[in-house]
Amino acid sequence: MSRSPYLHDIPLDQAVSLFHDRLHSYGLFGILGIEEIPLDEHAAGRVLAEPLIARRCSPHYHASAMDGFALRSQDTQTALPSNPVSLRVETQVAFVDTGDPLPEWADAVIPIENVESLNETGDLCSPAELRSPFAIRIRASVQPWSNVRPVGEDLIVGQLILASGDRLRPVDLGAAAAGGVTQLRVSRRPRVGILPTGDELVPLQKDPIRGEISEFNSIVLAGQVTEWGGRATRYPICKDKLEALSESVLKAARENDLVLVNAGSSAGREDFTCQVLEQLGEVIVHGIAVRPGHPVIIGFVQADQGGVARYVPVIGVPGYPVSAALTAEILVKPLIKRWLGEMTLENPEIHAQLTRKITSPAGDDDYIRVILGRVNGNLLAAPIARGAGVTTSLSKADGIMVLPRMIQGMDAGDMVSVRLFRDPSILEKNILSIGSHDLTLDILAQNLALKDRRLVSSNAGSLGGLLALKRDQNHFAGSHLLDPQTGTYNTVEIQRIFPGQKMYALRWVNREQGLLIKKGNSKSIRSIQDLARQDVRMINRQRGAGTRVLLDYLLDQEGVNPEMIHGYDREEFTHLGVAVAIASGRADVGLGVYAAAEAMDLDFIYLCDEEYELIFTEQGLQDPLLAPVFDLSREPQFKEQVARLAGYNIVHMGELRTINRGNG
Q1: H/E run at residue 222
Q2: pLDDT tens profile 582-629
Q3: Whole-structure pTM value
Q4: Can you tell me whether residue 312 is helix, strand or coil?
Q5: Residue 340 CB coordination number (10 Å)
Q6: Helix, strand or coil for residue 650?
Q7: How far apart are CA 563 and CA 58, in angstroms?
Q8: Buried b (16+ CB within 10 A) or exposed e, 156-177
Q9: CATH architecture of 477-659
Q10: The domain made up of 363-420 is a member of CATH 2.40.340.10
Q11: CATH architecture of 12-32+196-340
């Protein structure tokens, strides 16, 4: 059978419509089955398949709501502070504890602290006699049914406790128990088989060698399925062989309600998912116009059982981690919710202001990961890494915004809708840092978490951070911008960007900058002049980064023309990014901090020390949200953690200097 052409890209809504129509035709668009389970702690998280109705009243008797004395309210009507009423125990009042049945003759309870307990002689009782006095004296009337939980106060027989489709929470289990329910009828959990494929994949337990990739997408997909209420089964890695994949898909289809085949959904020479589905059933979609996540396959496999035709949906999930997770979010989550009969609720959405310009190819719905922070009352969305293989971008993201197809970009300051990944309340604890990257920010983030704060960072370089601060788009900016004329850091550039505005620099660290080279220095790189050699490949930092400014200064000092440097225009956004590029062989040399060389086991040629500071506006200086940042900068324990980084000096950390126009 000939293979389908690669990627007949269709819009997402059209793909979903085709999928749902076919599910309807196979009778797979509703609850898959009903199970009866006992009411216990294991029922939490299950979805009700039928309404939950109270079998008895709660409470099922009139109960005292507190410790005190049961009485007839009419016996107290004449009681006043100046005209107390005395009532005999046993004949007119009876002592009750909280939860005790109310005597049939009583209609109210007076708290024990509101009475005077009397002994047989009419004197006040001793503490030991408070619960068994001869009589009580009260100085205020009591209304009927005061301090009483009447029958059915909580639930009445036949009352709806929860509707079908509700996911059971622990408190719901308590309500069910109060209503006399002992068995629950819940939706059967959909079974989802996850089949990773690829010759290059190895189990997590094995350290991958060159050309091998640790298989972890199935863990992410299984975690998503479990979180949404399904039962996930992870199958062993299947090699890129047509017959093997066909057998594995058919086996998984016979054992599950849905099969996710991870990777092999594109059009490479070893991408067999589409061909397998055509052999075992049908393909209805191959390619959806979303980014990331183009090469999605949707099909059905005929997995007959006991002579009965059975059709199982199979989704070919792209291999890139972000594409895989987003594909599951878009296609698998709604299907599982529908099979459970659970109301499909979208993640909450908020509106935020974009911190920088973004572009997108026409024709795709572009899913862009963002971090969020509230600065001066405005909620801001800062885009982060967009690569389909950048797994950490999903774990770092606070939410995701969708740039619809045919819209090729948005400008800084535009309002966007963001679908949240986290509880909205956590956004008020986010400290948004946009600026120069430094390894100490990771240490800062760890310590801020202990102080009920969360540092979220976007690496935009020193200049980008200062410009964001000018636009009120971040709480602070890390900066190390060298002024070649004065040899000072940050002051001159801040005076230029913020003329006449008082600004503050929290002195942070002095750090060693130099050339990062592979261990052993096989190309004998010794100095800045060597960067211009034809056999040397360089990796640079992005425009606006302080390290880039420093490099240009050093090149000018040594009379080296940047145009002679092979790789001058190749950019990375962090010191560690530069170090990894060198360690992996993509480049021979780059400018970076000593700590990055140590982290990646590189050689380091020292060139100079530089000052790295955190820059704040006056409003930021007074913001209580940021107070822990200043506190930590002066804490000895925090400083010790920073000082352990190679090439860092913390002698001035915590000092605050004011920057005005014309002076430092």
Answers
A1: helix 217-228
A2: 999 999 999 999 999 999 999 999 999 999 999 999 999 999 999 999
A3: 0.79
A4: strand
A5: 25
A6: coil
A7: 82
A8: eeeeebbebbbbbeeebbebbe
A9: 3-Layer(aba) Sandwich (3.40)
A10: yes
A11: 3-Layer(aba) Sandwich (3.40)
